[in-house]
């Protein structure tokens, strides 16, 4: 379900990006998306009493639960009967359930695991509210994510040397919010209850909406509808084009809710065929609608869109398998205090906030010395590093033996290595796609970037599925087997990613030639004029470089 949700979050950006390009403009699309996000995050705060795990033994039913949240070392599995409760554990190999106080629950001291069954009882109303909330978030991101990046790209001229650095700083701002939310929402969720963590996220999103509406005066007209009159044109009855664009968002909500509710029914081949179909569409568009320099750059943009897949498929383990690994198999004690596992997801954003300005400065300094790596080389380094990060974690796992808890500093290490890889790939990729794609389809191309990010997230779900381990009451029953599974999966995907990174490095000169950077370096304005003379529409809607700050 997590894989389907995160995939749809990105897939729907291609719809939001296209509607903004053709009708709404980025400002209206981002505002509508933010409203949906506020509703979705507040909806996540409605959780009811929670699901229950019921154990049946010799015709009698008992509840299996935990005495806390988050899987910390002080969180124990409990079995509860009408007469009382007792802590339970499992022997090596998880063949026996051991009951610490059998008299309290009226059970024997040990029960073979083959002699009982378990089932989950859900509060369906609140489960459906969860699905609806996720669907609102999916649709909201669909209208917001690609378009907010397009707005940033519009603030810089095509050949502006500050472009990569500007996107890096934009990326740093995004991750400041991520850093704060991972700490405070994660802490509230573990200590006080999940509804408080999600509720705080709702307030954060509401604040973000207020800030965006307040700050629109600095967009300098770069995010307005391409044709304001077309928005007023009637589609059917009282519904005009603008209203139809918003109704499309509600249709996305309904479709997404259906998919998330039935994610187990979506076959992997369907997702693969979607990825192939979009790739063929992009190639066909480049071949039939573009020519010359524009076509060459579009092929470069397509490469970057595809090259991100192995990176995100591994990087996005952070929210699923890596988070569960941290919960279950890491000694999370720091300076005598056990840190809740969700808080560790703040490490990525924290490292970005620290290192993004350094990287942004580094690109400018290297560019002045004509030593800056090309975008394809940066991409290859990013993919290599995401594999290297998992190898470092596996090394930490092996250092503590078959059943030992992994030292917490290896979690810090993998997040740091992955963050360095992300800074080599993600903000640079956003910049490259907005720079390479023709101005009239930059929103659609950004949508394709996020679409393949979504497919990567689905693939991340497939990888995470391979790390699955037997649990009862939310806790592992066989630590040795679970740790071995994690080590095997993470080692395999690490070597694959590192090999892909090497191949990408070898072909980087070819991709660099496709980018036609020579035209931009000579004279960006002249290059655009030259394209127009050749019958290329590349100058359409592109603002030449200018002095001063990007928003002036």
What is the structure about, briefly put?
This protein is an alpha+beta fold and 552 residues long. It has helices spanning 2-11, 13-24, 26-43, 102-105, 124-154, 163-191, 194-214, 228-231, 241-261, 268-289, 292-307, 309-315, 321-329, 346-368, 375-399, 409-436, 442-466, 479-515, 517-522, 524-533, and strands at residues 52-57, 60-66, 77-81, 84-90, 96-99, 110-112, 117-121, 234-236, 239-240, 330-331, 333-334, 337-338, 406-407, 471-472, 475-476.
Can you walk through the features of this model?
The protein has 552 residues and is of the alpha+beta class. Among the domains are: 52-121, no CATH class; 267-331 and 357-533, MFS general substrate transporter like domains (Growth Hormone, Chain: A). The protein is 65% helix and 10% strand. The protein is built from 20 helices and 15 strands. It has helices spanning 2-11, 13-24, 26-43, 102-105, 124-154, 163-191, 194-214, 228-231, 241-261, 268-289, 292-307, 309-315, 321-329, 346-368, 375-399, 409-436, 442-466, 479-515, 517-522, 524-533; strands at 52-57, 60-66, 77-81, 84-90, 96-99, 110-112, 117-121, 234-236, 239-240, 330-331, 333-334, 337-338, 406-407, 471-472, 475-476. The strands form five sheets. Strands 6-5-4-3-2-1-7 form a seven-stranded antiparallel beta sheet. A hairpin with a 2-residue loop joins strand 14 (471-472) and strand 15. Helix 10 (268-289) runs antiparallel to helix 11 and helix 11 (292-307) packs antiparallel against helix 16 (409-436). The longest helix has 37 residues, at 479-515. The radius of gyration is 25 Å and the shape is globular. The chain starts with a helix and ends in a 19-residue tail after the last helix. 44% of the residues are buried. The model is unreliable at 522-552 (pLDDT under 50).
């Amino acid at each position: 379900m997590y894989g389907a949700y995160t995939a749809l979050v990105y897939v729907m950006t291609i719809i939001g990006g296209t509607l903004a390009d053709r009708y709404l403009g980025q400002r209206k699309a981002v505002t509508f998306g933010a409203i949906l996000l506020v509703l979705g995050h507040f909806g996540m705060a409605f959780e009811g009493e929670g699901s229950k795990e019921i154990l049946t033994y010799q015709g009698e039913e008992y509840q299996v639960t935990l005495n806390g949240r988050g899987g910390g070392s002080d969180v124990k599995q409990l079995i509860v009967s009408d007469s009382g409760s007792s802590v339970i554990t499992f022997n090596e190999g998880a063949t026996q359930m051991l009951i610490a106080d059998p008299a309290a629950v009226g059970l024997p001291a040990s029960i073979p695991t083959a002699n009982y069954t378990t089932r989950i009882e859900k509060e369906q109303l609140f489960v459906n509210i969860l699905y609806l909330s996720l669907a609102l978030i999916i649709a909201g991101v669909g209208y917001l994510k690609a378009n907010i990046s397009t707005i940033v790209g519009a603030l810089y001229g095509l050949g502006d040397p500050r472009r990569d650095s500007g996107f890096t700083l934009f990326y740093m701002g995004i991750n400041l919010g991520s850093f704060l939310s991972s700490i405070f929402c994660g802490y509230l969720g573990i200590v006080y209850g999940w509804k408080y963590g999600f509720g705080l996220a709702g307030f954060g999103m509401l604040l973000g909406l207020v800030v965006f509406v307040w700050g629109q005066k600095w967009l300098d007209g770069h995010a307005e509808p391409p044709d304001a009159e077309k928005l007023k044109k009637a589609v059917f009855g009282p519904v005009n084009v603008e209203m139809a664009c918003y109704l499309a968002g509600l249709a996305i909500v309904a479709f997404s809710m259906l998919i998330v509710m039935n994610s187990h029914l979506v076959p992997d081949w369907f997702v693969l065929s979607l990825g192939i179909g979009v790739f063929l569409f992009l190639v066909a568009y480049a071949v039939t609608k573009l020519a010359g320099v524009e076509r060459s750059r579009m092929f470069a943009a397509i490469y970057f869109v595809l090259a991100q897949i192995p990176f995100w498929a591994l990087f996005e383990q952070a929210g699923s398998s890596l988070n569960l690994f941290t919960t279950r198999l890491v000694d999370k004690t720091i300076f005598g205090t056990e840190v809740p596992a969700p808080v560790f997801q703040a490490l990525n954003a924290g490292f970005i906030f620290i290192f993004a300005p350094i990287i942004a400065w580094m690109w400018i300094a290297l560019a002045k010395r004509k030593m800056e790596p090309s975008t394809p080389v940066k991409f290859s380094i990013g993919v290599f590093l995401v594999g290297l990060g998992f190898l470092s974690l596996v090394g930490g796992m092996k250092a503590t033996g078959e059943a030992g808890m992994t030292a917490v500093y290896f979690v810090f290490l993998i997040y740091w290595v992955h963050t360095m890889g992300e800074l080599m790939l993600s903000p640079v990729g956003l910049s490259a796609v907005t720079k390479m794609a023709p101005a009239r389809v930059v929103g659609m191309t950004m949508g394709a970037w996020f679409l393949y990010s979504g497919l990567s997230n689905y693939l991340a779900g497939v990888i995470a599925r391979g790390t699955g381990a037997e649990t009862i009451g939310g806790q592992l029953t066989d630590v040795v087997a679970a740790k071995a599974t994690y080590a095997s999966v993470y080692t395999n995907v690490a070597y694959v990613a590192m090999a892909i990174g090497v191949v990408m490095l070898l072909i980087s000169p070819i991709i660099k030639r496709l980018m036609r950077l020579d035209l931009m370096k000579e004279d960006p304005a002249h290059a655009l004029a030259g394209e127009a003379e050749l019958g290329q529409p590349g100058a359409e809607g592109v603002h030449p470089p200018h002095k001063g700050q990007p928003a002036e």
